[in-house]
User: Fold these one by one.
Assistant:
Number 1:
Amino acid sequence: MSGAGAPDFFYREAQRLGYVARSAFKLLQIQNQFKLITSGSSVLDLGCAPGAWLQVACQSLGPPRNGGSVLGIDLKEKGFSVILSDMCPLVSGITTRDAALSVELGMQAVNLALGEAALGVGDVIHGKDNDNVDDSTSVSDCDGVLRQGGHLVIKLLESEDTQEFSRMLKPLFRKSSLLRPKATRSSSREIYLICQSLKART
Ligand SMILES: C[S@@+](CC[C@H](N)C(=O)[O-])C[C@H]1O[C@@H](n2cnc3c(N)ncnc32)[C@H](O)[C@@H]1O
């Protein structure tokens, strides 16, 4: 007999099979009996840490070409190591309007990624309080979902704000670059801001 804390059959099996917790076998049993997750399912896992159900759910999705996805959330910090935003507004053809909307979408991605650390960036891009933001800004009390060392990619429609957007994020990351991919149509104003390696919180 195994009490709580004693390595039992399921604990040892989880270790052998590479699951992060024995709870994997609970979802495996649910799957075996009810087959809820099928190829191409989209799954939301509430209370996902440490991630054993995520592992089982991902294994149950079938081949990536079927388009399945698993998203987990938890009170415990997990964070993402890469955040990609290819968000783009519905283009109206009014260049300044489209560019401003793309900056708004870019800021939403930055806010999600960096949380509190993004506040100064938004103020400067919107022309407020420029004097209070220092180029040596570092990530403080970051409550965003991008992990330290993580990378952020944001699509923008190029305008006079693009360089400012890039300049204000630069101090928060080890490296930042602007890229116009070869696959971008020549008529498009899109450009990608690639921010690499989020600096440590202070
Ligand atoms: C039993 S564990 C889940 C184990 C997970 N299914 C697995 O297989 O790895 C319960 C989780 O619920 C999370 N949790 C509790 N309350 C929560 C809340 N209000 N929002 C998000 N997560 C929560 C806890 O942080 C904990 O990680």
Note: The chain has two domains: 9-76, 81-198.
Number 2:
Amino acid sequence: MTSHTTPPPSLFDPVSIGALQCANRIVMAPLTRCRALPGSLAPHALNAEYYAQRASAGLIVSEATQVEPRGIGYMGTPGIHSDAQREGWKLVTDAVHAAGGLIVAQLWHVGAVSHPDLQPGGELPVSASNVELSGTVHTQNGRMHRVAPRALRTDEMPGIVEAFRQASRNARDAGFDGVEIHGANGYLIEQFLRDSTNLRDDDWGGSVTNRIRLALSVVDAAVDVFGRNRVGIRLSPVSNANACPSDSNPQATYGTLIEALARRRIAFLHFIEGNTGAAHFTDGFDFAGARRGFPGTCIANNKYTREMAIQAVESGAADAVAFGVPFISNPDLVRRLQLNAPLTPANTKTYYGPGPIGYTDYPTLESVQAG
Ligand SMILES: Cc1cc2nc3c(=O)[nH]c(=O)nc-3n(C[C@H](O)[C@H](O)[C@H](O)COP(=O)(O)O)c2cc1C
């Protein structure tokens, strides 16, 4: 007798994420490493080598890349707004593709998570409203306290959306397989989403409909360029990353946003469950309900172990799982998870640039065993 029940997928099975045929369900999470070329902030050969080493991931989400000069909040992060940056990213996508991988660009604007020392002309960073996020920013002049940003004028909003549209074109021309809109971790899009940081009374603030307008406009701009099946978004409904205060009702705000994204049938949602890089939890937002209502792929992230990831995919709680820190120090993470081999721990001191140490010099399992 044959059984008609399909066995649950495994973490190591292929998955389609929109138009992308991924070899497995292990995603490399976006990881800022601050190793773009000084001056041009263009990616270069070292970055191409790093990403190609990790091309066995089912999908790589690139480190966040700023869509305009004001979108920067850290020294040495790559942009995707100039010709040199586009050409630099081409080195990266070519190297990943040559190694058999897939890579989408994470499009980013930090908004208030910056400092005048990093901004063009020493201007104030921009945001939804002039709400200061506590914390410090590392600049060429040392560590500085964040400042209250300048609220974007209503007539400047189309320009922000255009920056994401042009960045999407640059990503396409640089050979990326798609884009992930960075709607998480307290950066500009999330500063508009949350009523704690968005105090506006124009069409871009106030009601949930208005607060989700920037996220949806940016997604629509990316879809215009790439088509809906190569666009996803990263969301962190309950994270307090970058000291961004919580929304008063994450369920209503993010739930309404996700319903609108479901109607657009974009390729994927990428959820950070809990506090980014800290506690994993799912209280405060119905992640399972959001997944049920979304027709595309759901990628889960935050502090997943091998066992948690296997369980999440086999139980249907997630279609794929993204790993961040484990990919920093294990270029062959997929193989190690397959074999249940030990993982090399990451050195936090070399997370952020410059140079190859703690970047391209982490060993594969073979070289560990040989050495
Ligand atoms: C060094 C470092 C850089 C990061 N850069 C980004 C980034 O550019 N974009 C982003 O959305 N998240 C970023 N994150 C968060 C990770 O993508 C991920 O959500 C977090 O590390 C939790 O996943 P993990 O427990 O598997 O590491 C970064 C985290 C680390 C440690």
Note: The longest strand covers residues 59-66.
Number 3:
Amino acid sequence: MSIESPGAGASRVATTIDYEKEGKQVSFLGVPISTDDSAYGTITVPITVIRNGSGPTVYLSGGVHGDEFEGPVALMKLARELETGEVQGRIIITPCLNLPAVLAGKRCSPIDGLNLNRVFPGDPAGSATHVIAHYVTTALLPLCDVQVDLHSGGNTLTFIPYVQMIRSRDEDLQRRTLEAIMKFGAPVALLTTELDPAGNLETMCDELGVMTIQSELGGGGTVSRTNVGYAYTGARNLLKHFGLIEGEIERPEDEGRPPTRLMTFSDRSCYVMAPDDGLFEPFFELGDSCEEGDAVGQVHYPHHIEKLPWKVHATRSGTLLSKRPPGIVRRGDNVAIIAQDMEAA
Ligand SMILES: [Zn+2]
């Protein structure tokens, strides 16, 4: 007797989606789980695929982190609205990629405690988060020309809304990505060096030669009309830019806002860390300028109120693009990110 097995390395995700089929398909990616609450359970990660004729494939994802709400809201709306006839090419949308984390409103999955954006390329024999990452790596990314991953700051960071790209090893790809992020319509477009690139979806995309674009829209555990608007308009602008849908790109200057400002994080010194545990008092608001060495805040000691607070200094000159909303900090927490203006080449 022989038992059919999917084979080593095969995905354990089950889906009815046929990526080659013309038309609009609304379904889910079934990820098997076995927990105290559900012995033969399935996580049903929502997915919409729209294909019409020939053209590029753009994959839009949200909810990689479950405490970042703008991407999921905007992409659920977009997935409902888009119809086959208005699309040229193929659009794949997963608004809530790490569904258990989204339902829990947490950065990491409550099933296995993992951060989806640290486990790529994933593992088909691993826990749920690994299985999702592995499916994206092996089933979705090989179909893609462009991957767009909509993030926000989550519970512990808040950002001036921006769209970003990582530095690519492929110069031509980097030039084309830069051109695309300037069309997103966010207040800032950023060329970045990831602080912690291992296991990231964008690192995986770059290794596979897929164009990768991310957003960071607000955060602090909140969701706002303005930032959902940036996510929605930004996703549509990119679909227009790549020729998937028709229409004029909506530019910030058309709405009386300043044009997109091109900025960069060049290295680790752009990330300011808390030097000790305590209560953090920021000295800045988002968008303020600072010089290297300026005090950007201080850490107070609730157990030792007689002790002078520890001043935290800017490690770079630039503009404060991000801060940490929770007042309680531990040594090593990121309390600010400082970006520098850049000339468009
Ligand atoms: Zn995120």
Note: Residues 56 and 242 are 7 Å apart (CA to CA).
